[in-house]
TrEMBL record:
Pfam families (alphabetical): Helicase_C, SNF2-rel_dom
Alphabetical list of InterPro entries matching this protein: Helicase_ATP-bd, Helicase_C-like, P-loop_NTPase, SNF2-like_sf, SNF2/RAD54-like_C, SNF2_N, SNF2_RAD54_helicase_TF, Znf_RING_CS
PROSITE patterns for this protein: HELICASE_ATP_BIND_1, HELICASE_CTER, ZF_RING_1
Database matches in SUPFAM superfamilies: P-loop containing nucleoside triphosphate hydrolases (SSF52540), RING/U-box (SSF57850)
Designated name of the protein: DNA helicase
GO molecular function, one term: zinc ion binding
Listed GO CC annotations: nucleus
Record-annotated Helicase ATP-binding domain positions: 156-286
Organism: Handroanthus impetiginosus
Domain of life: Eukaryota
Amino acid sequence: MNSDPLYQSCNAPEESWDSKESITYLPGFRAKGSSGGQEENVTFFTSVLKEHYTLINSETKEALTWLAKLSPNKLAEMETTGLVSPIVGTSLFDSRVSRDYHKIFQAFGLMKRVEKGAMRWYYPRNLLNLTFDLESLRIALCEPLDSLRFYLSSATLVVVPSNLVDHWKTQIERHVRPGQLRVYIWGDQKKKPSAHILAWDYDVVITTFNRLSAEWGPRKRSVIMQVHWLRVMLDEGHTLGSSLTLTNKLQMAVSLTATNRWLLTGTPTPNTPNSQLSYLQPMLKFLKEEIYGQNQKSWESGILRLFEAEMEEGKSRLLQLLKRCMISARKTDLKAIPPCIKRVTFVDFSEEHAKSYNELVETVRRNILMADWNDSSHVESLLNRKQWKFRATTIKNLRLSCCVAGHIRVTDAGEDIQDTMDILAENGVDPMSQEYALIKYYLLYGGNCMRCKEWCRLPVITPCRHLLCLDCVALDSERCTFPGCGNSYEMQSPEELARPENPNPKWPVPKDLIELQPSYKQDDWNPDWQSTSSSKVTYLVRQLKKLQETNRMIGFPCENMEVMSNELNFSSNKIYLDVPLKYCRKSMNKWSQISLEKVIVFSQFLEHIHIIEQQLTIAGIQFAGMYSPMHSSNKMKSLANFQHDPNCMALLMDGSAALGLDLSFVTHVYLMEPIWDRSMEEQVISRAHRMGAARPIHVETLAMNGTIEEQMLRFLQDGDECRRLLNEEFESNDLDGTRSFRTLHDFAESNYLAHVSFVRTNSRTEKVPSSADVFI
Ligand SMILES: [Zn+2]
Ligand SMILES: [Zn+2]
């Protein structure tokens, strides 16, 4: 140690060694007479070489070989007269110019001096009986240099979705005294820090999943892989995905080295159409869970298949596994959180909107009825198990049409109906008659049902030439329901009916009726938000106006007094109108304590969001939008706006923004449609209903009366009953060895379609009872 107290700290540079003291130990050197190749010196040389890996080029290699091959006599010159620098390469070069290998030689402990234009290498001064350990250097040079140095670290790496970086930062600031934790944020854009900085200069390194993916590459050596972390944490860990398909993100997460591996998620099993458990295995793989995480086969045969087949053993193994590796904290365990008050509000359509919804219902019911009179084994029926894709699209359209009015364009209907008109002519309708023209007009453009007088876009024409809506025609499969008619259809028995489209017909069907109907070629359903008058949004605006009024009572800021506020030098340029000026300053400083009403408005449909935006703007309610396809930087701006601007009352968001945000100051959540995925709903509500919330949270789901939304809510309310029905369905279909529905989701969708009914805004006749009440 340096005898001068000024130079005794670890930070004192080596050059400040007391020149009078002899050096008895130096890495890379050995005592004369001792044997060469000492292990610690080999390690020393290896680490120097690795650290300077980027400097190793052909010239450096030549210089290192020169050094390693020196004879004992030549080596001895370094102690006395100095050894002339190696002349490497074929090109002329000035030995006084610094070369890459100089840095490595110096890192070995050798000293460089230029004397009379020539450069010489020396040992450090005052070495006491030490010599350079050439044998160790030779051994070190034989080791592969491209293996990277590994940094043992006491830091925690936290990987989060990009939109949660700020949340982690502010939470750390809020809960940890300044200076206690050194936090480094490595975002999506930032340039690469070096591995040793990450490992040694920080306690917490926060980065994003995007970064994690970007850092993975087959030949890439990411700096985050050069650190042995104390702890790696994945926030919203279920975003690893639902399969073991090797995404960059998953490969990287699994490859990280850490003593402890943590994973946080509020939704370990997002409710997807495919499987409830599929998200668990990637998470277990990340956690390196010994049995099921490391071996996909044991997971599949040990838990997944048993669980999906609803076998008790699958369930109990899953529970054991979760007990081993999971700590669960539910909201009910946290007494400090104020209650969450949920309610559902049913709203009625405007007449125009109902008409547009009914058009869609009509196509669904027409398809199902005309497929051998509600026979799900007909391949073209929406209820057929093979039609799940078509069914999913139809459901989506039906749900969307509860929020946004739209149209189905029926193109070239003229050609489609000609066959029908020809059959009618064969059966005695005079093509020149008024009746012929009327039927043709009805089939082309729609008209009012002759029985119930309701308008229908695609009426059914009976062989007895009565035009009926689907509700009326469906009342009886054997005869016309027009009052006073009662004409019997030509029935076909299941035996005669069997054909490729329906190998197993279930019941007799009215052959002549079905064959008479035109097969309309339909285009997609097109939502038209600009011209929608949405009852839900009208309701929403009314509620928000009330809340706006409450905010105004607390002392809503007003923009009229900007001039004065500048004089007062307030940080915000707005002050209260209703409050005497002397209170303003005090209140301004207390923005955070003022409990303004703040609202989340959630919708899964972009078209619906557009309507809401349009109507909020007209109503003068300030809001911020945070939904796809907005750029993430704009989403962040919106979020900041909602958080900090007291005028901005509502945040309009979709599922892409629902993950992990802390909006515990929010007081109301409006779910603009029922949400099928319970975990998605939970994610949205949890933005507001979470630790930190000081007031009860009101959650209101809006649904249209009598529509598929009402069916969905009923289904979701009673999950157990639904599963029981699904089981029955399974059992009844086991006879022919096929599973009729892939999942509960699929079953539910099929069920909605089987029971979807028209919405009547001003019933002129008694509403036809629908069989949708199966769940009540
Ligand atoms: Zn009718
Ligand atoms: Zn009739």
